[in-house]
Each structure stands twice: as C-alpha cells, then as structure tokens.
Request: fold
Amino acid sequence: MKREIIKTADGSTTIQLNDWNECYHSKFGAIQEAQHVFIKKGLSLFESKSISILEIGFGTGLNAFITFLESKKLNQTIDYDGVEAYPISADEVLSMNYVSELNAKNESSIFEKMHECNWEEQIILRQDFLLTKRKQFFADIDDIEKFDLIYFDAFGYNVQPELWSTAIFQKMYNALKQNGILVTYAARGVVKRSMKEVGFEVEKLEGPPGKREMFRARKN
Reply:
C-alpha cells in the first residue's frame, strides 16, 4: 500500500495511506487532534496520579510523546503500553516533525528512543515514565483490569470496521480497571452501540478541530 508523509493543517506531519485515503492522524492537525482527544479529554482527568495507559495504535509515536511531555506538567507517573501490529519504518520516523512542532528539542532523544527501543521490553524513559511497545494485533489483546486509561486510535471505521466491533470493545472493557476511561476521536452511532453493548457508559464530547464530536467511555 502506497504511503506518504503529508503536512496537516497545524503544520505537523502524518502518514497518509493513499489506497485507503486514510491518515494516521487528522488532516486538520495531527498535534491538535492528539492534544484535544487524548490529553484534554483523557490524560488531564488523572492529574497528580500514577496511572497505566494502553494505546491502541502506537503508530508514529505522537500520542506517546505528547503524553510524555504533558505528564510532567500534570505531575503524573505513567506506565504506558503502546500496541501496534505494523510498526512504521525508520525513514518515516525521521520524517515526523513532532519534536520541532512541539518545541521539545531538549527531548528529541526521547522521541528517538521510543522508536528505537525493543518491542516487548519495558524501558525507562524517565523515572516516572515507563514504556512498553507491544507488536500485537488488537484482537489478541487479553489484559484484565490493568489500565486506567485507553487511547483508542485505530484506523477509521470506514476502512477497518472490524477494529470497532463489539468483540474489540469487550477486550477494551476487560483491560480497564473499575472507573477506567477510554477516549477516541470516533463519534459514529455504530461505535457507540458497540461500546454500550459491552457495558461502557458513553458520553459525546466536543471533537478536535475539523470534527464536531468524539466519544469518551467509562467502565463502571
């Protein structure tokens, strides 16, 4: 499948899959989307806490890198698992401009380490931030009550509807601790129904730039 690096509306880059007309991040702003959906509507709810995060779709590492930067401001200790079935290439990593766009040149080595570190091995990025990358299909996730927060950042329903199924959300529900939170950019009715079917309490929130709405789900 043909892939190319494109610049999104906020100046940050993403990867576009031309055959699918699908991107790893929003064309309206990769960084803006990550900050709104995953930080503002997710991570910020856990200020001054120690939490475990599961990311569904590690991809370019953008969500993990922003979480690393923001968790210090939020006084958090993070244990972060990023799941990805198809890791991006070294050339694609080098083409991402997140370090410069986030004014994080002092942390450029962290972004590189996130991509260079071994899969299936927990590493210490900072004394209060642990990262484990898991090369795994989402259907094979079998964690039980391990995570406080899930970033659900799979490719869109229009190209991979199976990733938004009741079966996958059952795995997400099982993986969350009691009162755990799942946030996603999605806002389709069929997605909401799948979430509710497995027991999630779902709320519709204001979406990131270019998208009217998004979902946040809670395990009660």
Observations:
- The domain at 29-218 is CATH 3.40.50.150 (Rossmann fold).
- The two ends are 40 Å apart (CA to CA).
- The chain is about 30% helix and 30% strand.
- The chain has one domain: 29-218.
